Amino acid sequence: MKRLTPYPVLVGDVSLEVREARLDDISLPFAMISVPQRMVALHQVERERWETARLSVRLRTPRQELASGPWRDEGCYAVLSERRTNVRTTARLHQEEPGIWTGDVVVHRDRHVGRVQLTGHVVATVDGTAGRQIGTADETWTIDLKARTPVKSTTIRTVWADFGDEGNARLRPFSADPWTVESVGEEPVLYLNKGFEGLSTMLESSRSVDRAARDAVSAQIAQDVWTSLFNSAVYAIDFESGPPDWPGGWQESVLKRLLSDVFPDRSPDDALAELANRRRTGDGGSDLQTRLLHAAAKQARLPRNLGAFIRTVRRSGQENE
Amino acid sequence: MSEEIKEFGPWLGRQLRRKGMSQVELANELDVTRAAVSAWITGRAEPRMEKIKEIERILGLASGASMTGTDIPDSSGNVEWHHRLAYADGGRELGNAAAFAFDSDLAVLAREATQNSLDERFDSSRPVRVRYVLHEITGERLHRFFNAVRWNDLQPHFEAAADGRQKVGRVLRNGLRELKEAGGLLLLRVDDYNASGLTGPEYDDGKFAAVVRRQLDSRKSGTAGGSYGLGKATLWAASQFGLVMMHSTLSEPFEERRERRLIGRLDLPWREVEGRQYAGPAWLGEADPRRDGAPRSWWADERTINDLYLTRGSGDPGTSFLIVGVHDPAGEATDLESMHTVLVRSLAESFWACMVSGRDSAPMLEASVEALRDGRTVVAEERVDPHRYEPARSRAVRAFLDGETVTEMTDAEGVVSATVPLTVPPLKEVGRPDAVVHQAILLVTPASDDEGPNRLVCMRGSHMVVVERPVSDVPLGSPPFQAVLLAGQATGSKAEDAELAENFLRTAEPPEHNDWKQTDDLTATYARGAASRIREFRRAMLDQVRAVVKPPEVKVDETPPSLRDLLRLDPPSTPRSPGFPTVKSATGTLDTDGAWRVRVEVRLPEREDPWSVRPILRFATRSGPRPQAGWAEVTAESNCEVTDDNRLLFTAGARTAAFSCVSDVAEHPVAADMSVIEVDLAQAKDEIR
Amino acid sequence: MSTAPERLALLPDEASARFLTTPVLQDREPLPVAAIDQACEALPHELRWSAEPIRELVDEAMKRFDGPRTEADAWLSTRLHSTLRITRGEAADNRMWNHLALRIAPDYVFWRHMGRATKTQPIPTVNRSRFSGAFYSHAFARLWWAAELFRDGYDYAPVVLACENQDVLNTVLRLEVILHRPTAQAMLKLLADGTLRTGRDVNALAQAVNTAGTTLFFEALAPDAEPDPDAYLAWIEALDSTLVPLDGMPDGPDDGRAPLGAVNTLVPIFKRLFAEAPVRGKEQKEAKDS
């Protein structure tokens, strides 16, 4: 897919950086800001009840290009947005020196709940049309109200719980199972059963004798997770109001990770259309499950981990003979 | 009149030395006693006017020369090359041992020469200014330069020395060949201002003799950092001809004079020229009549200085070294531009800390580099800006100088200050009973990725980087940072502990000045346990860095490590070589009807069956579904044909194809000049609506 | 059957999904209230979480609108917003909306959103997202958010206008561009002045603005004034001394209106975008009309 814009836009890099964060005017430790991760963690145990977080941001624009290009009345903006609370706040930045724009954006605690996106935009008058977007910052920052460290979570959340526990109404029915997956809501969760004898010892083991078995079990768990998440993500595809649309959120991530192995000769969009079509018509379900099994096994590295396990078992069998 | 008396004596003494005439000879010519001449020279008495006139005549000077202080002019007779003869025992030195004692290159030259200048700082309230001027000369300029340096006299020596199979012979051969082929000569002048200059007598201990006469002598003014002995050798190592000219403005007068003290030194290996054997070094200077014609410096006139490209920028004391036929022994920098870059980088890297100034304090050092070709600027004079090359570290030092450090890292430019204890053990000899604890200062500031983050540099009073190392085991989630440790007198403390720590750390530096560790000097000087104190100090500084950058909390992740990689949810990377047709490039314009005219190049994975796709035109939106529009026209260009339903059928086996199309204006959701479009390919028969 | 809950509570998505079986969505089986109550997390004892005033509104709505039930949206939207005084952060919590739909007023969800029988679904069914789903499809969340996003400061009049047109609720409400208040108000102005006449018109404008939003940065053309968060909180606290009127128009939070100048800047731009946008079927329709 290629994009075309009907007027000249910036080619050079536009970069956005959070320089400082203040909770109710008190500076946050800089360790809560991660430049490489493009993330700010706003959760501090000692200061639960803050009202506003003020972020100092700096946007860099390609100085030469902007000065010599066909643009006039350039302006730069920082935008805070969070879809869950339908908030989009725009702050105009001031040019500190050519190519450097700075300003503050304010996060109001009451108007946000989780991950707030911070983006940077360059706007100018082009060919007499004012307010044209001519560039956006290469990276989007995440301001996370719940995170305690500015580290982006890249794995599916895992929770150890005793499924048999009285307080776990929803896990009780599965108390005999080693693991289960919950794939509703904002974030899917893999529950590992603490009450399943030997499971936690094996999975947390770092002994080399346990490695083959541990990895084989891990791959098995992962295959289950991917299969089940894929199946719920299929139901999140909206195909009623036009061409099938990516569902966003974790569902989109799951689909994007698996579809290239489910339908290897189709582009992501084509694969999505195919998936939606099969769901709509109810055709090709069993073929889809076979393909899914393959894709999930690949994600879970099942062939490698299970193969290594079998080899180990065979070897120790020979030694015992 | 008394002032003239005071000046006449030294003037006369100087003229006699220049002429090689003894006091007795002059006395005989004037028909006076030797004692009378001696009394004039020492200023105890003054000759009568007619005697002065006669003296001027004998010396061959115009009448009144003594009043104006005019010297006997230099002439080819006075200034010439003096080659040291070979030892009678036939011992040979194949190249200057010092010059090749360590691997040299231009970066090392800049470091060593500048360190020497810093060590020789004259007025400690002002910065030392060093200036590097690269100059490539050809034609008439080269001709004049060769005359001034008496190149013709050296030519047979070069040719003889170039014969050798040693490294120095090879370098020399290259130099001579390049000179012949290119017809140009590269000069590098290294100036310092507000430095001592080459003071002191010709042969006895002093700075002049240390630089000019001896090769491994280190004669330092104060808190020494580098090693002058090795340092100056880099100057000769950087010359393809082993030839360096020196011009110094002295901070303390010698022979009553301060300005335009000149001498040249050549370092060649043992050689035989016209039947005579020469040991190696040679000097360009006057023959000293009182030393059997041994070469000595001379007080040159401005024209000579000018012809030798040794004119200094101001009357401030200091020295100019002219490296003739400069090259990068490492072979990396080969032209003016790249040499300029190497010098600037080296100066920035080694001396950024000396060049940082506080709000109310001058820096220790100012440095600049420029490059010219035949008098025309090639690279304009660049004042080395520490904040440009070492932004985070320079910021840290400046914040320290300005007293603007903080205790907690809160913004991208904040500088945290913490302390690191150093226990200085007692000296062996003096038997000072107790160890003293010195608090070194650790500065930590966030850095950008491209600065090679998470590193620590250490320095003491000289502000030269001694230790430069990565900090390992940085706590998870720490921001990238730079750390600077200031120890000893670099802490700005005048207290005793700072001085003791300064000495202790200097003793712990190996000759390369690149570490603090156990040295022979250390074990010899300090009481038992000195090496352990150094080790503790090194450990303590790393621990302190980690403590400063540690994020307040560490995230609780319950995912077993073996599962972590299997459950990654971040977006997959796009395949370099996807298994389906993709748009390789799309370019387009709006036509007068408001339709998009787009040309598309397609990348096709190889497949036996021909690929069939539908070109898709989508309109980008701020959110939600992106509306599609149809094409009014699709035209095949290469490796494809257009089917009836506006699909494309690509030639079987083709890897690339191209087509162009025109959008259907009636289906645009908005005027085309208001929209961003996306061009894509779909295999699906038709969109599901 | 358990007694009606006094207060709203938080019912997780995962639990809602379990309770919303097909027979339940077809209203052929009752919702398991005891199990729902067990799966809930309580909210604090605050007046604004009282279930009764909301229950009252819902009953009133079902009584008042016995004609086309879509007409209840405009009436209920403003009053629900003015009764359920919560912050946007609180409104982002699906669990509260789940509880409201599954436990407090499922009868309203069936009343308002029961689908028609189709070939694939011969038994009328309520779409699951009306009980537990995105803010723009949930039976109550969509009304509350419509009021929050279309109000002009304390003035709910634009909300009424918006809710009278189902395409605004179904299409425009979902667009990110309307999070810029002057953009939202300018679009509604085109509805008020008759520029937009049909649902098709609304959709065409929505698409044109949404598409043009990739090249035009509306925030630069028409800078908004930041709403006053303290005024909003004051309005929440004022609930104790307020009785939301059933006939008259209630007041929204007085946290500042979208600058009129900004709205007026965008109106002609949107008019032009709309005029230039080829509305699918517009030409045919106009041809037929003439």
Please outline the helices and strands.
The complex is a heterotrimer of chains A (321), B (689) and C (290).
Chain A: E1 2-4, E2 15-23, E3 26-27, E4 33-34, E5 39-41, E6 52-60, H1 63-68, E7 71-82, E8 87-97, E9 100-108, E10 115-126, E11 129-136, E12 141-144, E13 157-161, E14 179-182, E15 189-193, H2 199-204, H3 208-234, H4 249-262, H5 268-281, H6 285-299, H7 302-320
Parallel strand pairs in A: 5-12, 13-15
Antiparallel strand pairs in A: 2-3, 2-6, 4-5, 6-9, 7-8, 7-10, 8-9, 10-11, 10-12, 14-15
Helix pairs in contact in A: 3-4, 3-6, 3-7, 4-6
Chain B: H1 2-19, H2 23-30, H3 34-41, H4 49-58, H5 65-68, E1 79-85, H6 106-119, E2 128-138, H7 139-149, H8 151-161, H9 167-182, E3 184-193, H10 207-212, H11 228-237, E4 243-249, E5 261-267, E6 271-273, E7 276-288, E8 294-296, E9 298-299, H12 302-307, E10 318-324, H13 336-355, E11 365-373, E12 376-383, H14 386-389, H15 391-401, E13 416-424, E14 436-446, E15 455-459, E16 467-470, E17 481-486, H16 496-507, H17 520-525, H18 530-549, H19 561-564, E18 582-590, E19 596-603, E20 612-619, E21 628-629, E22 631-638, E23 640-642, E24 648-650, E25 656-663, E26 677-682
Parallel strand pairs in B: 2-11, 15-17
Antiparallel strand pairs in B: 1-7, 2-3, 3-10, 4-5, 4-10, 5-7, 5-9, 6-7, 7-8, 11-12, 13-14, 14-17, 15-16, 18-19, 19-25, 20-21, 20-24, 20-26, 22-25, 23-24
Helix pairs in contact in B: 2-3, 6-11, 6-13
Chain C: E1 9-10, H1 13-19, H2 22-25, H3 33-39, E2 41-42, H4 52-64, H5 72-83, H6 88-91, H7 94-104, H8 106-113, H9 141-150, H10 157-163, H11 166-170, H12 181-192, H13 199-212, H14 218-221, H15 229-237, H16 260-276, H17 282-289
Helix pairs in contact in C: 4-5, 5-9, 5-10, 7-8, 9-10, 12-16
Pfam families (chain C): DUF6339
InterPro entries (chain C): DUF6339 (IPR045920)
